[in-house]
Amino acid sequence: MPSDSKIEISASLLRKLHRIHRQRADLAAQIERGPRQIKAGEALVAKADANLLSLKEALKKANLLSDDKQLQLKSREAQIDQLQTKLNTAASNREFNLLKEQIAADKQANSVLSDEILEAMDEIDGLETKLKDVTAELENQDNDQKNRITEVEAKTSELNSELARVNSELEESEKQIPGEVMVEYRRVIKAKGEEALAPVEDGSCGGCYQVLTTQYIDRLRLSVLIRCPTCNAFLYMPESTRV
Q: Measured between alpha carbons, how far is 54 from 56 in angstroms, rounded to an integer?
């Protein structure tokens, strides 16, 4: 809209329109926040679930390793018993000494293996304790997500109702806009949203801070429709300004 336009529009209407558009933008932002909150909650649940699956797999491997070591221990103990029997029936000193050395080596190996089995059992105990904690964490995340969804759905319903009311108020208010500027108004609103309107603050555009000439200010005081020469916003005088 050129600055020499003679179209008049009240500052109170522009203030009201700006307030409504800001309300609409705020409500829309809150409505959009809901799905993001739910998605973030889904990520927390998925992470807790992944931790649980990983821990279960680690516990499974630890149990398999412990079982394998215990089988090895039993096998070696049986082997020692067999060697002990052969030792008692050794046909020569050389065979006796060889069997005795083998038995000593196997007992030493079994001692190491026993220590490893104890360590494996300690690890299993630790994993089982952690499994309880992670299971509880997943349950908490599941419950939190269910509550989150319920809260978001209820809040979204309220916000949509409020948005419908604000849209109705906007529709009524826009009926007061002069017909000759309606097309341009719609275009700028579509492009800039709430930033399509801006108050004059300390002689500058409240949207882009462009300093306005005295002529602009004077015409605004006379309720002449003026657009910011820089950001193209519809300008209006704040309610506190005396005309």
A: 5
Buried-state track 35-56, b at ≥16 Cβ within 10 A, e below 16: eeebeebeebbeebeebbeebe
User: Taking a C-beta distance cutoff of 8 angstroms, is the pair 24, 170 a contact?
Assistant: yes
Rounded to 5°, the CA angle 161-24-159 comes to 25
Q: Please provide the DSSP assignment of 168-214 as one string.
A: HHHHHHHTTS-HHHHHHHHHHHHHHGGGGEEEEETTEETTT-PBPPH
Q: How far apart are the first and last CA of the chain?
A: 23
Per-residue pLDDT of 100-137, as tens digits, reads 899 999 899 999 999 999 999 999 999 999 999 999 99
pLDDT tens-place string over residues 78-110: 999 998 888 888 888 898 899 889 999 989 999
* Architecture of the CATH domain 11-236: Orthogonal Bundle (1.10)
Q: What is the pTM of this model?
A: 0.73
Place of tokens 């600055």: 3
